[in-house]
């Protein structure tokens, strides 16, 4: 499974499907399967966050479906600026860039776990 944001709607469909087939009394093996599925989905969301943390260029390249949301949150010229900054591997990073990266990483965290936190807007961590 490739790293993806957590989709609670998909998990709900999986659970509903299992209950439809077997009723509310799921067999132990089915519960184990469900537990494995939940762990896999949470692991995938964590891997998603860690892969794209501090790397918005890679995020937008590999997940073009997030580009619109990214532009709405950070402005349409931010990707150009990021790509330009990425070309300077050893440059001294200003406090403004560090502050922006912190905001980006917070947005990315809430995007990865959007199903848990609601609409993805942050009012501070957890």
Describe what this molecule looks like in 3D.
By secondary structure, this protein is an all-alpha fold. The protein has one domain (8-117). Helix content is 68%, strand content 0%. The protein has helices at 8-22, 28-52, 56-62, 67-74, 78-86, 95-112, 114-117. α1 packs antiparallel against α2 and α2 (28-52) runs antiparallel to α6 (95-112). The longest helix has 25 residues, at 28-52. The radius of gyration is 18 Å and the shape is elongated.
Strands, total number: 0
The tally of structural domains comes to: 1
- Residue-averaged pLDDT: 75
Rough outline: elongated
Helix proportion: 55-70%
Which percent band covers the strand fraction? under 5%
The major sheet is characterized as:
none
Number of helices: 7
SSE pattern: HHHHHHH
Q: Unreliable runs, pLDDT <50, ≥5 residues? A: 120-126
Beginning-to-end CA distance, first to last residue: 26 Å
Structural class: mainly alpha
């Amino acid at each position: 499974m490739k790293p993806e944001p957590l989709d609670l709607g998909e998990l709900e469909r999986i659970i509903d499907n299992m209950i439809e087939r077997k009723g509310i009394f799921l067999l132990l093996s089915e519960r184990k399967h469900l537990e494995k599925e939940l762990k896999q989905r949470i692991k995938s969301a964590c891997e998603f966050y860690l892969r794209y943390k501090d790397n918005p260029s890679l995020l937008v390249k590999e997940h073009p479906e997030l580009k619109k949301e990214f532009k709405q949150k950070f402005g349409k010229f931010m990707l150009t600026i990021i790509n330009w900054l990425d070309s300077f591997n050893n440059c001294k990073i200003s406090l403004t860039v560090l502050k922006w990266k912190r905001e980006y990483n917070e947005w990315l965290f809430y995007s990865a776990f959007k199903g848990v936190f609601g609409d993805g807007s942050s009012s501070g961590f957890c």
